[in-house]
Amino acid sequence: MLQSRALVIALILLLSTTLPEVHSKAIFERDRRDWLVIPDAIAAYIYETVNKMSPKVGQFLADAAQTPAVVATRTFLIRETTKLSILAEQLMEKIKSLWYTKVLGY
């Protein structure tokens, strides 16, 4: 039982999700800067599957997802990936600008 509990905690930390946010996000939104949407969807699927088999373990997963360590880790990851997304968008705009001005001569 201890090993399975450790595995569940590791899964929660790996996927870093909070349950209410999972259901409010679309997986394939085009203008989405949050790169954690797909892991959130996977975590929601795991939670729903586990909850169907054992509501007690499902409640444990829900409680573990709300712990301050998991929430803080998830918040940090979201903040940093958003910064990276913005930088990538800015880089793409600069490349497009250079392409149009230097290569095509517009």
TrEMBL record:
Family listed: Belongs to the apovitellenin family.
Full protein name: Apovitellenin-1
Job of this protein? Protein component of the very low density lipoprotein (VLDL) of egg-laying females. Potent lipoprotein lipase inhibitor, preventing the loss of triglycerides from VLDL on their way from the liver to the growing oocytes.
Q: Which UniProt keywords apply?
A: Signal, Storage protein, VLDL
For biological process, the GO terms are: lipid metabolic process
Q: Coiled coil where?
A: none
Q: Which residues form the signal peptide?
A: 1-24
Top-rank taxon? Eukaryota
Q: Can you cite an annotated GO cellular component?
A: very-low-density lipoprotein particle
* Molecular function terms from GO: enzyme inhibitor activity; nutrient reservoir activity
Q: Tell me, what's a Pfam family for it? A: Apo-VLDL-II
